[in-house]
């Protein structure tokens, strides 16, 4: 039970991200089939069947995800309060999850039955969306509730129509005859523009309410996460704009290549999913306006992120760290803790120096990766530069020594003994994965791995890692410090997303200016990540 | 700590790993007694006010006495965002009010408020 309590936060954010994704795919598909912009005649039978199948499986995944969320919350309440089952089922949040699960099941049932049941599936989808508002911030607010309910509904519907609709657009595009592609592109542009308008309008309204004041954008974790989401949205709008222009080209030349349209749409799906998981992470934070006294000032933010030279290349002595010192907790404030979160022991100057040293050296490794990857573009340097994935081995060795200071060879805990701690075990597992990943990508670069899927491992895993860096749950014990950590982590995650998907585009696009730009973007993103790490500070 | 320190290193590598904090929402905006308050009576009203509506039936207030003995306090009706009770039979010494709450939108939070009795 204790382990479950410890991982519940992360599990819940991940589950919420999964639910948002399945919900967007389900409702996006229903909107795609039901909105008048998609004319029956233009969507062939094959495309229609594929779309219905995707809606069915998305709805089924949503049904399971909601049931799992209800079970997890029930188990958590049962474990911490010892409540009987009847009491658990009475919880508003459990009822919302169960009702959403039933409605998602209804969508799956209707979409898999007769064709004329599509409107019924659409109606179940609308009820489902209305139910889901119960799991958003709006449900527990004390004021402006009606406006927030409407905004949450419009926001989620906008996301579903736009992001959730893209896979259906790709299905329709793939099945369309050459002459019909421009109609498919033009009609999806119309639908997605409506989705974007709803998403933005509702998003601005909610941001104004939940933030309270503009200073919260940089002074509170909620604002920083919101800014990250806005950054992802800008990227999506850029990709969507490019696709809009490509769609217009199709109108003048119906036989024009739809390859670029597809590739950008693939990346839109990836970045869109990242934004959904970022939104799930946002739900784990109290709105910024509820934390007026726990904010960082502009000067504090600038001081934390301002690059300073020299970087820390000398480590403090291990003996000076506080890992073995008794734990002291300041009882001076009515702190709230998330489940599984405990008061962190105070950290001394050496602890901070140790951590900064680790980050700065890790940054040097990442910077080297980026520079070598960029140098690979030069024919003279390529024979050496193509070995850049081996830098991962150096990073892994460094992390093995430094990531957990209390573990052998530096600390008092034995290597095997330390694996009982879930966080340390997790770090060790990651180190093994880094080694495997570095060797794998190295063999790809050398041409020794010929499988068609092999080159995609690097961009996908980089993008997923970056998405997970955004998708963490938040502690509450020290909101200001949490936010100052956030403000250094978030740009890293965003350049990670850019790196992963730019490399994906480089692999997927036909030769041309877009491909060449993508091939430069991802090494530059790695260079930026390296610099961000090198100038990272904790005080 | 909400994010492992080494979380940061892993941006450039294909990692998916578990953060060690948790889903959370309801936070304390006011309380009676105040944190570290000293009261000079054998009983006191206990009230914890949150930033959001809470599910009272799935929330709890526990009083831990100077000797470590704990008692679950019965919750009284009150505003949608509060947990309200009364602690009586207090003797000199340090007490802790442990609270756990479920916000209406499904997030569990917990914490404690410490106070002193000195008559």
UniProtKB/TrEMBL annotation, chain A:
Keywords: Cell membrane, Membrane, Transmembrane, Transmembrane helix. InterPro entries: CopC/D (IPR032694), Cu-R_CopD_dom (IPR008457). Residues 184-282 form the Copper resistance protein D domain. The chain crosses the membrane at residues 20-42, 54-77, 89-110, 117-135, 155-176, 188-208, 220-246, 267-285, 357-375, 387-404, 424-440, 452-471, 483-505, 517-536. It is a multi-pass membrane protein. One of its GO terms (cellular component) is plasma membrane. GO terms for biological process: copper ion transport. It is found in: Cell membrane. This is Copper resistance protein D domain-containing protein.
UniProtKB/TrEMBL annotation, chain B:
It is found in: Cell envelope. The keyword Ribosomal protein does not apply. Residues 1-26 form the signal peptide. Pfam families: CopC. Keywords: Copper, Metal-binding, Signal. GO terms for cellular component: cell envelope; periplasmic space; plasma membrane. Residues 25-117 form the CopC domain. It comes from the Bacteria. GO terms for biological process: copper ion transport; response to copper ion. GO terms for molecular function: copper ion binding. SUPFAM superfamilies: E set domains. The keyword Metal-binding applies. InterPro entries: CopC/D, CopC_dom, Cu-Rt/internalin_Ig-like, Ig_E-set. This is Copper resistance protein CopC. It comes from Methylocystis heyeri. The lineage of its organism: Bacteria, Pseudomonadati, Pseudomonadota, Alphaproteobacteria, Hyphomicrobiales.
């Amino acid at each position: 039970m204790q382990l479950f309590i410890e991982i519940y936060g992360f599990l819940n954010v991940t589950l919420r991200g999964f639910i948002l994704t399945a919900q967007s795919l389900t409702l996006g598909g229903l909107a795609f089939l039901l909105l008048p912009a998609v004319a029956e005649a233009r969507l062939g039978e094959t495309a229609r069947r594929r779309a219905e199948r995707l809606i069915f499986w998305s709805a089924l995944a949503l049904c399971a995800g909601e049931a799992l969320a209800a079970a997890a919350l029930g188990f958590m309440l049962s474990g911490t309060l010892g409540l009987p089952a009847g009491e658990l089922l009475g919880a508003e949040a459990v009822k919302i999850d169960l009702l959403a699960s039933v409605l998602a099941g209804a969508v799956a049932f209707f979409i898999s039955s007769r064709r004329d049941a599509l409107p019924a599936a659409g109606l179940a989808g609308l009820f489902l969306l209305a139910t889901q508002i119960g799991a958003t911030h709006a449900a527990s607010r004390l004021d402006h509730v009606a406006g927030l309910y409407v905004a949450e509904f419009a926001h989620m519907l906008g996301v579903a129509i736009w992001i959730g609709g893209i896979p259906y657009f790709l299905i329709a595009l793939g099945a369309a005859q050459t002459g019909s592609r421009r109609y498919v592109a033009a009609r999806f542009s119309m639908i997605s523009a409506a989705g974007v308008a709803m998403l933005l309008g509702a998003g601005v309204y909610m941001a104004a309410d939940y933030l309270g004041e503009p200073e919260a954008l940089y002074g509170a974790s909620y604002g920083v996460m919101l800014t990250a989401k806005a950054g992802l949205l800008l990227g999506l709008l850029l990709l969507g704009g490019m696709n809009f222009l490509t769609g217009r080209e199709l109108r003048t030349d119906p036989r024009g290549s739809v390859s670029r349209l597809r590739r950008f749409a693939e990346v839109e799906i990836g970045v869109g999913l990242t934004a959904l998981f970022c939104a799930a992470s946002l739900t784990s934070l109290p709105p910024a306006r509820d934390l007026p006294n726990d904010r960082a000032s502009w000067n504090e933010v600038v001081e934390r992120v301002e690059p300073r030279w020299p970087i820390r290349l000398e480590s403090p002595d291990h003996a000076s760290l506080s890992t073995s010192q008794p734990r002291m907790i300041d009882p001076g404030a009515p702190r709230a803790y998330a489940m599984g979160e405990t008061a962190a022991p105070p950290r001394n100057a050496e602890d901070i120096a140790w951590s900064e040293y680790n980050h700065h050296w890790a940054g040097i490794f990442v910077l080297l990766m980026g520079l070598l990857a960029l140098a690979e573009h030069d024919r003279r340097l390529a024979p050496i530069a193509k070995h850049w994935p081996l830098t991962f081995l150096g990073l892994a060795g460094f992390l093995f020594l430094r990531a957990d200071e209390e573990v052998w060879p530096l600390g008092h805990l034995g290597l095997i003994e330390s694996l009982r701690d879930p966080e340390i075990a997790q770090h060790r597992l990651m180190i093994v994965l880094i080694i495997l990943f570095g060797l794998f990508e190295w063999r790809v670069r050398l041409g020794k791995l010929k499988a068609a899927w092999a080159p995609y491992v690097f961009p996908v895993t980089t993008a997923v890692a970056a998405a997970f860096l955004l998708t963490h749950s938040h502690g509450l014990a020290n909101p200001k410090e949490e936010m100052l950590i956030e403000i250094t982590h978030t740009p890293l995650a965003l350049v990670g997303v850019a790196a992963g998907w730019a490399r994906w585009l480089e692999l997927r696009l036909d030769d041309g200016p877009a491909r060449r730009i993508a091939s430069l973007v991802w090494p530059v993103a790695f260079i930026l990540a390296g610099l961000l790490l090198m100038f990272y500070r904790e005080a | 700590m909400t994010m492992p320190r080494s979380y940061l290193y892993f941006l450039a590598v294909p990692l998916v790993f578990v953060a060690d904090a948790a889903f959370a929402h309801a936070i304390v905006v006011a309380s009676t007694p105040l944190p570290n308050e000293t009261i000079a009576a054998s009983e006191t009203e206990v009230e914890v006010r949150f930033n959001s509506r809470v599910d009272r039936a799935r929330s709890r207030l526990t009083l831990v006495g100077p000797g470590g003995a704990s008692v679950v306090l019965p919750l009284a009706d009150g505003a949608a965002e509060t947990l309200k009770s009364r602690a009586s039979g207090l003797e000199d010494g340090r007490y802790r009010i442990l609270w756990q709450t479920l916000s209406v939108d499904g997030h569990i939070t917990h914490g404690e408020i410490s106070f002193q009795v000195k008559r």
